[in-house]
Each structure stands twice: as C-alpha cells, then as structure tokens.
Amino acid sequence: MIQAFTPTAAVVFVLAGVGLYYYFRQEKARLAEEREKERGLKSYGRPNIGGPFSLITHDGKAFTSENILGKWSMIYFGFTNCPDICPAELDKMTAVLDDMQKQHGDIFLPVFISVDPARDTPSQMSEYLKDFHPSFIGLAGGYAETKAVCKAYRVYFSTPPNADPKGDYLVDHSIFIYLMDPSGKFVDAFGQNVGQEEVEFKINEAIANWQKETGKKV
Amino acid sequence: MGWFSSSTKEDVSAPTRENRKRCWETRDAYFACLDSAGVVKAGEEGKACVPEKKLYEENCAKSWIDYFNQRRVIAEAQKDRLARASEQAQAAKK
C-alpha cells in the first residue's frame, strides 16, 4: 500500500507552498511596477478618436487619413456659412500656428473639415480659407463621407442629407480642435473655452513628450 | 439680402472676413438700439429702430439674423437666471 502522507511529503508540500507564495508575490510586484512605468511614459486611457477617412481638399485633390501622418495636425470641424464661432476658432488656430511654427518650424498641419457637404464645394472652401492661416487644408466630401469622418472623430452635426445647396441655413455641430500626433493618434481636444495660450502650452507639452520617446519632434 | 444675392459668381458665396465684420457691426448697432428702447426680442420694438434694422438685414444672411436674435433672447434669460441665483446665494448666506 502506498502511504500518501509521509513526513517527506509534508515538507515538500510546505516548501512548494511557501515557494509559490513568494514567487507570485514577487511577480505581482514586478507587474505592478511595469504597469506604473508604462503609465508614466504613455498617456493612459487615450480615447479612441480618429480613424480612416477620404475627402477632397479645397484645391480639388484627394486627401485621406494617411495624409495627416508625419506632422502634428490640428483638426477643426465647421462650415463656411458659420456666423461667428467657426471664424473665431479658426482665428485662434491661426494665432497658435503662427507661434508654434516660429518655435518648432513647419511641423504642423491645420485641417478644416466641412460639416456642410451640400454647400461647401472646393471653390467655396478655398475662398473661405483665404482669411485664415495659409497652411490650412480645407476638406469636404459627400454626405456619406462627411458622416463617416464625423463619426470617427465623435463629432455631432445637424445637416440633413438632402440639404439645399442654395439654401440659407445654419449647421449645429460640436466645437473642438483635435490635436493628433505624427502617427495620427489622438492627443487632446480643445473646446471653445480653451484659450490660445493654453492650446500652445498643451501642444508644447505633447511635442516634448513625443521627443522624449522618439528623440524627434515629428 | 446680404452677400447671398449680391454675389456675382454663382458657385462661390463664402462669407469673407469683411462680410462678417459688416454684419456684426450692423447687428451690434441694431441691438444697441433695442437696448435703448428696452426691447429684448427683436421685432417687438415697433417703429423704434427702423434704419438700424434695415442695415442689419442688408448685411446679414437671414439664418444669421435668426441665430443672433435668438441668442440675444437666451443671453438675457441667462442674465436673469444668474442674477436670481446670486441673489439666492446671498440670501442663503444670511
């Protein structure tokens, strides 16, 4: 008959138990430390904003989400017939760009995406953008493309699919400037209440973090 | 009515900085007139601000006028609410 319980077995059992206990405790501490380190380097809980899109620029060229890579892009959604909020936000972006380009060089891409596909033709966009920073890219598409890009950026807009291209109407839409890093990932969103200086501070901070991780500004 | 009908090119009717500025200025003048007439809701001023209103309507699109007028009413209501809230806050402190 096999004796299941011997003093040797008892010792082995206890030793194994104690060993495993210390092993798991150490592993747990190591994993926690790793997580902590990762959290310090990367921004955690980054919302999943952005994604593929395909639109037409204000000078009639194709432009996709691939084209925002390699620069720090600032993306704003609006429409050319906007009474006061859009032009104020685009003026803010223009002032920010003037400062940032002076400090960092030509590493920024300001993008204005229309939420009014019925009226904002390329020529309309091109005319409108003359009043703002010369590096602005104006983007528009059909209703489906507009809806898709708004969905990717979590932007609400009220234009109906059958809007009259000659109609006199306003578009209700969310007001955010999205900062995307050179790999196309979302960094921050600035609402209407975030002033020029705060936007610049946040951009500088993002560039500094990027530089720390990659050794480069873009 | 504004640059929508006076635009010479068919396709392009994008309001320019100049258009916007003129519209805002005529709006401010009209609203100042409403203020002095003690009227909040545009259209209720009777014969008080006819020249200001005419300029406003000539320089702003109809959709903009509706928007600015509505916002004026909302802003007034908000002012009232804020005033009442701060009164209540003061009263609560006593």
From TrEMBL, chain A:
Predominant subcellular localization, coarse grouping: mitochondrion
Gene3D superfamilies: Glutaredoxin
GO cellular component: mitochondrial inner membrane
GO biological process terms held by the UniProt record: intracellular copper ion homeostasis; mitochondrial respiratory chain complex IV assembly
Protein name: Thioredoxin domain-containing protein
Binding site for Cu cation: C82, C86, H173
GO molecular function, one term: copper ion binding
Subcellular location, record wording: Mitochondrion inner membrane
InterPro entries, sorted: SCO1/SenC (IPR003782), Synth_of_cyt-c-oxidase_Sco1/2 (IPR017276), Thioredoxin-like_sf (IPR036249)
TrEMBL record, chain B:
Span list, region Disordered: 1-21
GO cellular component terms given for this protein: mitochondrion
InterPro entries for this protein: COA6_fun (IPR048281), COX6B-like (IPR048280), CX6/COA6-like_sf (IPR036549)
Compartments in which it is found: Mitochondrion
Signal sequence interval, chain numbering: none
Major site of localization recorded for this protein: mitochondrion
Keyword Mitochondrion found: yes
Pfam family, one: COX6B
PROSITE patterns reported in the protein's UniProt record: CHCH (PS51808)
Stated family: Belongs to the cytochrome c oxidase subunit 6B family.
Name assigned to this protein: Cytochrome c oxidase assembly factor 6
